[in-house]
Amino acid sequence: MSTEIDIAETLDVKGLSCPMPIVKTKGAIDDLAPGEVLEVVATDPGSVSDIDGWATGTDGVMLLEQEEGDDVYTHYVRKEA
Fold it and tell me: Which PROSITE patterns match (predicted)?
């Protein structure tokens, strides 16, 4: 992670494929308070573009960063409002 991010909750969606990572991410974000960050850990390579597109098209959500590791994709999403 290039910057220090204060993570409120981690969501493990490893082994799930589209659309489930997005469905579960939306549910977890809904439970957070504004300003809190959700870390989403996925194995679906499509989650990189899926979560980016979802965050871009969703009011009150901001994608802070995405990282690719050894077949694991980590996304940091902040609830804005």
Answer: UPF0033
Per the domain annotation, does 2 fall within a domain?
no
The CATH number covering residue 24 comes to 3.30.110.40
Q: Which letter does DSSP use for residue 33 in this model?
A: P
| Structural domain total, the chain | 1
Q: Identify whether 45 is part of a domain.
A: yes
Q: Is 77 a catalytic residue?
A: no
39-63 pLDDT, tens digit per residue, is 999 999 999 999 999 999 999 999 9
Contact 58, 30 (CB under 8 A): no
pLDDT digits (tens, 9 = 90+) for 10-38: 999 999 998 999 999 999 999 999 999 99
Task: Provide the token pair at 54.
Answer: 């979802």
Q: Which of 18, 23, 62, 72 is catalytic?
A: 18
The structure's pTM equals 0.92
